[in-house]
Amino acid sequence: MGWKGLIEEYRELLPVDANTPVVSLNEGNTPLIFAPKISALINENANVFLKYEGLNPTGSFKDRGMTMAISKAKQAGAKAVMCASTGNTSASAAAYSARAGLKCIVLIPHGAIALGKLAQALIHGAEVLAIDGNFDLALELVREITDNYPVTLVNSLNPFRIEGQKTAAFEVCDSLGKAPDYLAIPVGNAGNITAYWKGFNQYKQSNKIVDLPVMLGFQAAGSAPIVNGAIVSDPKTIATAIKIGNPASWKSAEAARDESKGLINAVTDEEILQAYKLLAQAEGVFVEPASAASVAGIIKLAKAGYFKNKKKVNIVCVLTGHGLKDPDQAISSIKEPEYVSPVVEAILEKIKLD
Ligand code: AN7
Fold this sequence. Notes:
By secondary structure, the protein is of the alpha/beta class.
């Protein structure tokens, strides 16, 4: 029958019952891809794997949380859902709401979300409102409205979002036959690092794995409140998905870091863009800039000797969103196409074949 979506696949580990109307686009079951060139860059003992979450139905990991949040909202009789978003949450909420027949309202920071994501929210029929203000302000407003009016919050403060997203940790363990030694992940609002840590712990409690991974979270340097230990009031980064100055799941991200003896570090926009190009050009994997923070992070740690003198290690980098989400970034990161006369000789002159 094939994969039926993560609620059906992991039903016994999720808070659903026989009456839950499952709203699914067959999300999950994303590939764990070995990355030989990035492995070699880390050291001779490293096996780096890429959890390519961009292959979910709307192109990001958010679908894992949204299948749960929308199914549970429907079960509770909700008529409308609402979220603040740096883009991917709104795309996913819009798609799952369309499928469920729910009204979807999204609040976005004006001019600060990638074009592909905005197109998705609009084409799926969400009511999209842009504010003059950043994501953190949008989330504050959405929290106030959803606390006081009959509309369900579907940001990752909704616990069902975390429940759905934890299944990515299950899949990583199912693919490797154990937990990885290290799990590297971009951190924005910090829901996903919280979800992975919950998933690994639940798998351990269910005796499906023995050891837990060390959690390595990465924020963009201009938007690194957890690293700095202070709210960033005006976050800045080209990785718009993680341009968040006051993460909602700050405390649980710190718990994941500390309980796993891991770290949450910062990577610069330049390091993010280098990793972004490396993934595309050396491994054939196209991601959006925020996703490349996990790879940028482990490369930075390796240079500082973090993985030195370690035995053979498995490192999983979570690649949270697809590169096609942000075509502007791709085009501005490389040379624009060259013009050539439409004749064979002119083309041969340009391409210099042997
Ligand atoms: C590609 O869509 O917050 O640390 O509103 O889109 O769980 O927030 C997106 C976050 C990483 C960070 N990578 O995850 C939103 C939103 C991508 C993302 C993150 C996001 P969290």
